[in-house]
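Propose amino acids for all 158 sites.
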Protein backbone atom coordinates (compact mmCIF):
# COMPACT_ATOMS: atom_id res chain seq x y z
CA UNK A 1 0.00 0.00 0.00
CA UNK A 2 1.52 3.39 -0.93
CA UNK A 3 2.31 5.77 1.91
CA UNK A 4 0.82 9.23 1.88
CA UNK A 5 3.17 12.15 2.25
CA UNK A 6 3.29 13.15 5.95
CA UNK A 7 1.43 16.43 5.46
CA UNK A 8 -1.40 14.72 3.54
CA UNK A 9 -1.73 12.04 6.25
CA UNK A 10 -1.91 14.69 8.98
CA UNK A 11 -4.55 16.60 7.00
CA UNK A 12 -6.65 13.43 6.64
CA UNK A 13 -6.46 12.73 10.39
CA UNK A 14 -7.47 16.31 11.22
CA UNK A 15 -10.35 16.22 8.71
CA UNK A 16 -11.61 12.87 10.06
CA UNK A 17 -11.44 14.10 13.66
CA UNK A 18 -13.26 17.30 12.73
CA UNK A 19 -15.99 15.43 10.85
CA UNK A 20 -16.59 12.97 13.68
CA UNK A 21 -16.67 15.78 16.24
CA UNK A 22 -19.33 17.55 14.17
CA UNK A 23 -21.45 14.46 13.44
CA UNK A 24 -24.59 14.97 15.48
CA UNK A 25 -22.96 17.59 17.68
CA UNK A 26 -24.92 20.69 18.59
CA UNK A 27 -22.77 23.71 19.40
CA UNK A 28 -22.91 25.69 22.62
CA UNK A 29 -25.12 28.75 21.90
CA UNK A 30 -22.88 31.73 22.61
CA UNK A 31 -24.82 34.95 23.19
CA UNK A 32 -28.22 33.24 23.53
CA UNK A 33 -29.37 35.60 26.29
CA UNK A 34 -29.47 38.37 23.67
CA UNK A 35 -31.84 36.34 21.48
CA UNK A 36 -35.63 36.62 21.40
CA UNK A 37 -37.13 35.56 24.74
CA UNK A 38 -39.96 33.16 23.87
CA UNK A 39 -41.37 32.47 27.34
CA UNK A 40 -40.60 31.54 30.94
CA UNK A 41 -42.28 29.21 33.37
CA UNK A 42 -41.68 27.50 36.70
CA UNK A 43 -42.15 23.77 37.16
CA UNK A 44 -42.88 23.22 40.86
CA UNK A 45 -41.74 20.33 43.03
CA UNK A 46 -43.74 17.28 42.03
CA UNK A 47 -43.38 17.93 38.29
CA UNK A 48 -42.16 14.95 36.26
CA UNK A 49 -39.41 14.29 35.57
CA UNK A 50 -37.80 15.69 38.71
CA UNK A 51 -34.98 17.13 36.62
CA UNK A 52 -37.54 19.49 35.04
CA UNK A 53 -38.33 21.18 38.35
CA UNK A 54 -37.28 24.83 38.32
CA UNK A 55 -37.29 27.98 36.22
CA UNK A 56 -37.37 27.51 32.44
CA UNK A 57 -36.39 30.39 30.16
CA UNK A 58 -36.72 29.77 26.42
CA UNK A 59 -34.76 31.75 23.83
CA UNK A 60 -34.85 31.65 20.01
CA UNK A 61 -32.34 32.86 17.45
CA UNK A 62 -33.65 34.84 14.45
CA UNK A 63 -34.31 31.76 12.31
CA UNK A 64 -36.20 30.07 15.14
CA UNK A 65 -38.19 33.23 15.85
CA UNK A 66 -39.23 33.44 12.19
CA UNK A 67 -40.71 29.95 12.35
CA UNK A 68 -42.73 30.38 15.53
CA UNK A 69 -45.84 31.63 13.72
CA UNK A 70 -45.77 29.19 10.81
CA UNK A 71 -44.43 26.11 12.59
CA UNK A 72 -41.96 25.74 9.71
CA UNK A 73 -38.34 26.06 10.79
CA UNK A 74 -35.42 26.40 8.42
CA UNK A 75 -32.02 24.86 8.99
CA UNK A 76 -30.01 26.89 11.47
CA UNK A 77 -32.98 27.62 13.75
CA UNK A 78 -31.90 27.25 17.38
CA UNK A 79 -33.88 27.19 20.62
CA UNK A 80 -32.31 27.30 24.06
CA UNK A 81 -33.90 26.19 27.32
CA UNK A 82 -32.06 27.71 30.29
CA UNK A 83 -33.17 25.70 33.34
CA UNK A 84 -32.46 26.73 36.94
CA UNK A 85 -33.30 25.22 40.29
CA UNK A 86 -35.49 27.43 42.42
CA UNK A 87 -35.30 28.51 46.02
CA UNK A 88 -38.29 29.58 48.05
CA UNK A 89 -37.68 32.96 49.68
CA UNK A 90 -38.86 33.92 53.14
CA UNK A 91 -41.07 36.57 51.52
CA UNK A 92 -43.14 33.97 49.58
CA UNK A 93 -41.08 34.35 46.40
CA UNK A 94 -39.36 31.89 44.09
CA UNK A 95 -35.78 32.81 43.25
CA UNK A 96 -33.41 31.32 40.70
CA UNK A 97 -30.89 28.93 42.18
CA UNK A 98 -28.08 27.06 40.45
CA UNK A 99 -28.32 26.41 36.73
CA UNK A 100 -29.33 22.80 36.09
CA UNK A 101 -28.78 22.58 32.35
CA UNK A 102 -28.64 24.61 29.18
CA UNK A 103 -30.59 22.57 26.61
CA UNK A 104 -30.29 23.30 22.89
CA UNK A 105 -32.34 22.34 19.82
CA UNK A 106 -30.75 22.88 16.40
CA UNK A 107 -32.64 22.46 13.13
CA UNK A 108 -30.65 20.58 10.49
CA UNK A 109 -33.02 18.44 8.43
CA UNK A 110 -30.27 16.45 6.70
CA UNK A 111 -28.20 15.70 9.77
CA UNK A 112 -31.05 14.86 12.18
CA UNK A 113 -33.53 12.93 10.01
CA UNK A 114 -34.53 10.53 12.80
CA UNK A 115 -35.58 13.29 15.19
CA UNK A 116 -37.81 15.48 13.04
CA UNK A 117 -34.83 17.42 11.70
CA UNK A 118 -33.79 18.59 15.17
CA UNK A 119 -30.55 17.91 17.02
CA UNK A 120 -30.47 18.04 20.81
CA UNK A 121 -27.76 18.76 23.36
CA UNK A 122 -27.61 19.64 27.01
CA UNK A 123 -24.78 21.36 28.85
CA UNK A 124 -24.70 20.49 32.54
CA UNK A 125 -24.74 23.62 34.66
CA UNK A 126 -24.36 25.65 31.47
CA UNK A 127 -20.76 24.42 31.10
CA UNK A 128 -19.89 24.11 27.39
CA UNK A 129 -17.49 21.25 28.16
CA UNK A 130 -20.08 19.08 29.95
CA UNK A 131 -22.32 17.59 27.26
CA UNK A 132 -25.07 15.39 28.69
CA UNK A 133 -27.18 14.16 25.75
CA UNK A 134 -26.30 10.58 24.86
CA UNK A 135 -29.23 9.99 22.53
CA UNK A 136 -31.24 12.75 20.85
CA UNK A 137 -34.08 10.27 20.41
CA UNK A 138 -34.68 10.39 24.19
CA UNK A 139 -35.12 14.18 23.96
CA UNK A 140 -37.25 13.96 20.82
CA UNK A 141 -39.87 11.73 22.47
CA UNK A 142 -41.29 14.73 24.37
CA UNK A 143 -41.48 16.75 21.13
CA UNK A 144 -43.41 14.21 19.04
CA UNK A 145 -46.89 15.43 20.17
CA UNK A 146 -45.97 18.89 18.83
CA UNK A 147 -45.37 17.82 15.23
CA UNK A 148 -47.91 20.39 13.92
CA UNK A 149 -45.81 23.10 15.59
CA UNK A 150 -42.62 21.87 13.95
CA UNK A 151 -41.84 19.77 17.06
CA UNK A 152 -41.36 22.96 19.10
CA UNK A 153 -43.10 22.84 22.48
CA UNK A 154 -42.88 26.42 23.75
CA UNK A 155 -44.83 29.23 22.16
CA UNK A 156 -44.62 32.97 22.82
CA UNK A 157 -47.48 34.69 24.60
CA UNK A 158 -49.72 36.58 22.23
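Proposal:
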Amino acid sequence: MPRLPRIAAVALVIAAASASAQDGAVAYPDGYRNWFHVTSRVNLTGSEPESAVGFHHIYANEKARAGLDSGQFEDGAVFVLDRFKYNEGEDKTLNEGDRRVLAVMLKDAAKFKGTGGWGFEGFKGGDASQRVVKDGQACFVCHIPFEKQGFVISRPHK
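DSSP finds three helices and five strands in the chain. The two ends are 66 Å apart (CA to CA).
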